[in-house]
Amino acid sequence: MPSVMWFRRDLRLADNPALVEACADGEVLPLFVLDPALWGPAGPSRKAYLAASLRALDASLEQRGARLQVVRGNPVRRVPLAAKEIGADRVHVAADYGPYGHRRDTDVEQALAVHDVGLVRTGSPYAVAPGRVTKDDGTPYRVFTPFSKAWTQHGWRDPIDAPTGVSWATLDETTDLPDPTLPAGLELPEAGERAAHRRWEEFRDGPLADYKTDRDKPGVDGTSRLSVHLKYGEVHPRTLLADLSGHRGAGVATYRNELCWREFYADVLWQHPESARDYLRPEYAGMEYDEPDGALTAWQLGRTGYPVVDAGMRQLRATGWMHNRVRMIAASFLVKDLHIEWQYGARHFLHWLVDGDLASNQHGWQWVAGSGTDAAPYFRVFNPVSQGRKFDPDGSYVRRWVTELADDPDPHEPGARNGYPGPIVDHAEERREALDRWERIRR
Description:
This protein is mainly α. 47% of the residues lie in helices and 5% in strands. The chain folds into three domains: 3-124, Rossmann fold, CATH 3.40.50.620; 127-158 and 194-271, Alpha Horseshoe (Serine Threonine Protein Phosphatase 5, Tetratricopeptide repeat), CATH 1.25.40; 282-442, DNA Cyclobutane Dipyrimidine Photolyase, subunit A, domain 3 (Orthogonal Bundle).
């Protein structure tokens, strides 16, 4: 019987268990649904990158005698129609553990069942699917370190090759692949499975050795830059973990730990779907916050007068990406210097980040805001000046993105010059104010 392979966050052919299962059924329809509920709210970075990734997947399929069949509309309607057209009795997917994706799949499953078609979930975007790692009593972890130990002990299956000798099905009517226009000045990385593997090999054979120290230096190419490829499933984390098993060193251990953080946040979001919008620790909703005004705009545009914060915000708008250390600094500044709720910053990041992952983004923000999983919460307030000097000691990162300070002898020093604004707030004063507000909700 024919079957449908419904691609979502697994835009690759290699190490794709759902695709292998679909191919075992016989003829396969490679389907992608442009879902207005996801496409509409997506920012320009994610729309452009997704379109490029779909074109790369289509090119890979074409080499195997197929073309990606793209339709537009509500998956609850479009997936059953596609299955009916080719006479499929099963639709194969990788399980989605996000709040929207889980609800959507349940609705699609029910719609398919009306026509005696099954929805088969095989694998997920994670090495260990959310919900698999629990305490001895079956409850989920809220702290990273014990989760990481249990995650490592649980382990993951080995990667598998792409299927061969597949017979492919087509639809009578499809839509063209989207081709959104990028805003002027925004440049994104190359998309696709091949690009993901090239980037991994470059990182593995180079920066990985010094990753433990260099990952915190925004002026150094010391990170993997694989977050966007993982976001769209152009490479699976177990593929990276399997490759890491043959390597040793502090950099390898640290990188494996970072992959675990991604899976930890996915697990927390799965257990607490409301935390995508609301406080994981609800007492923080009672803290006094300021209304967003011109300060939020200055932060968004990289005009706060704090150079490392502004460098990060400008990098975000120019590349759809921001160095993780600077993400934390910029987030801390918004919440604890400007006293603006984390959700405003999280929305801005998701709009512009090409690797905008709901679980990692929202819970990264909640970690900074003190309302998330961190055991040492709100009293951690990043000093944007000392953080800049510590992690960008030669100022190369700030000079690159804050061009007004390109020739400045000390680009981390706040102060108006060369068209660059002075600080919009006094950090020392706002730190005291942030801690005072925290003390008030503790009483």
